[in-house]
Write a structure and sequence with these properties.
heterodimer; A: 123 residues; mainly alpha; 7 helices; B: 426 residues; 76% helix
């Protein structure tokens, strides 16, 4: 199943996963360790954004990655991977310049750009 | 076209100046682009660069067994860079409790140095010196003493290329002295001479910490020769000097040595005090093996004070920890201490298996030419002989005497001393 074929709210996705497995809300509650009332609230979107622990419990019950259920977690992971790529690119750059030049860049990495100096007109 | 100094180039870029050179020189333009990446990653915290480097090396070595790290890193020419070599040394420092992994890391650093030299990209002489020295100390910890001495020869050769050659030579002398005090070499007189020479030079160079380490090495060598009073006279002021310098691990080492000497001369209350201080110091730096060694010294002191029942579980636990870490020379010493303490507490104690274990380890480890290890073997065999006599096993006692004689007939006699706690009557 492609979970992200079309954007879905958390509640709609939860309901779809439950129906695909032919489970009742009570069964979801039992398998995930949350209350049936919580499941109902999530599906009816009375609760729109569950906390991370609830997402992880439901993900374990449905045997999917938490990121597949909650777009916030997916966004976090994408952001982390993007940052990791930037860090890797930086190190690859550093391995192509001398150690001294890397040190010069590290030393200036925290300096703020200075405003451009204006040329004074001579009178 | 000549390029500006990279630091000056960045100063111009940060000042918002137009730098026409960047439009003409791809190298400098790439450098500035990398600098902006650096700013993005560091976000005002230069240590983030180090974290990025660690993550990069983790990814490169992920899933690779530690014995293959050198081959994997050397195979990728992109990684032949001082930054990677330094990172390997940093990791080696962090895994000192695990000598085999430490050796794999320093071996990888040596291999990268050699590969870089072959490729013509010469790492600095200071870095090569550090690599060979660290490799030597890792090999020493793993008890590959010939390998350690070879690495020190390479370090010494590199030292001659550097301005502070005298200081570096003294550091090599100190490392050699430390290696000479290991059981498999047992060259204590040479170790003392080297340590004294190193101390004088290091003191002159203002390298106070290493000068103290040289003094401690001398004290350690004296203690190995059972000259405990002389060792104590040197070691006692060291702990305070290390403390004043803010070197908790070194201070703990000094306290442990002092405790060991006090225990050997029978001043158990002093020994216990210093051992507990050492234990505390090692706990602070999180070195489990060192904690075990200090706890063992404390157990010896407790046994000496007549509290053997309290000491016994500590003896067993600490020996287990050291055995699992494959530090067998220390394990042998610990078991000999235990046997002496157990028999002192109860002359009928069943320590035959312990004495057999010590004899077996001593007689099968190394090349058999270690004076110190033969001394330990002799000590264990002597215990076995006496246990056999105690239990009226005449034939067995004769066997151990024969073994003892055979062990020493082929070589000069060992310098055997009676264990300090061994005053039980059979």
């Amino acid at each position: 199943m492609t979970l992200f074929a079309q954007p879905m709210t958390f509640g709609a996705l939860l309901r779809e996963l439950r129906l695909q497995r032919g489970w009742t809300q009570e069964q979801v509650a039992r398998f995930s360790g949350i209350t049936a009332n919580q499941v109902s609230n999530l599906e009816r979107e009375v609760t729109v954004l569950p906390n991370v622990e609830t997402v992880e419990r439901l993900a374990r019950a449905f045997e999917v990655d938490p990121e597949e259920l909650d777009v916030r977690l997916l966004a976090d992971r994408v952001e982390q991977e993007a940052r990791s790529l930037v860090r890797r690119k930086l190190i690859k750059w550093a391995l192509n310049v001398s150690e001294r030049d890397v040190a010069a860049a590290v030393a200036r990495a925290e300096e703020r750009p200075r405003p451009k100096r204006r040329k004074r007109r001579r009178r | 076209m000549s390029c500006p100094d990279r630091g000056e180039l960045l100063d111009l870029v940060l000042a918002g100046e137009d730098v026409p050179h960047l439009r003409e020189c791809d190298d400098c333009a790439d450098y500035v682009e990398g600098f902006w990446l650096m700013r993005e990653v560091c976000k005002g915290r230069p240590e983030n660069f180090q974290l990025a480097l660690e993550e990069f090396v983790d990814e490169e070595l992920e899933g690779v067994p530690s014995k293959d790290w050198a081959a994997v890193l050397v195979a990728n020419g992109e990684l032949h860079h001082p930054l990677i070599i330094r990172e390997l040394l940093r990791r080696a420092q962090r895994v000192q409790e695990n000598p085999s992994v430490e050796v794999n890391l320093t071996s990888a650093a040596v291999a990268l140095c050699d590969a870089s030299m072959k490729a013509g990209a010469q790492p600095s002489a200071q870095l090569r010196f550090d690599v060979f020295k660290e490799h030597a100390m890792a090999l020493r910890a793993a008890n590959d003493l010939a390998g350690a001495l070879d690495a020190l020869v390479r370090a010494s050769a590199v030292a001659s290329e550097l301005e502070n050659r005298e200081q570096l030579d003294a550091i090599v002398a100190l490392c050699t002295a430390l290696t000479y005090t290991e059981a498999d070499l047992g060259k204590f007189d040479e170790a003392i001479a080297l340590a004294e020479r190193a101390e004088g030079v290091l003191e002159l160079c203002g390298d106070r910490r290493r000068a103290l380490m040289a003094r401690q090495t001398k004290a350690h060598a004296l203690a190995c020769m059972s000259r405990f009073a002389e060792a104590l006279a040197i070691a006692l002021p060291l702990a305070g000097e290390y403390d004043a310098m803010g070197s908790p691990f070194d201070a703990a080492n000094a306290h442990n040595l002092i405790a060991h000497c006090y225990a050997e001369i029978g001043t158990y209350d002093e020994a216990l005090g210093h051992a507990l201080v050492a234990q505390c110091g090692y706990e602070k730096v999180g070195n489990a093996i060192a904690v075990a060694r200090a706890s063992h010294t404390a157990a010896c002191a407790q046994a000496g004070l007549g509290h053997f029942d309290e000491a016994q579980p500590v003896f067993d636990q600490t020996a287990d920890i050291v055995f699992r870490a494959r530090d067998l020379d220390v394990w042998v010493l610990m078991r000999l201490d235990y046997i002496a303490a157990a028999l002192h507490h109860d002359p009928a104690a069943d320590v035959r298996a312990d004495a057999e274990g010590v004899a077996m380890v001593c007689l099968t480890l190394g090349d058999g030419d270690s004076t110190l290890r033969r001394r330990y073997a002799a000590e264990a065999l002597d215990y076995l002989r006496r246990l056999a006599r105690r239990d009226a096993l005449t034939v067995e006692a004769t066997h151990y005497v024969r073994h003892f004689v055979a062990l020493n007939a082929r070589r000069p006699p060992v310098r055997f001393t009676v264990p300090s706690l061994d005053n039980f009557v059979m």
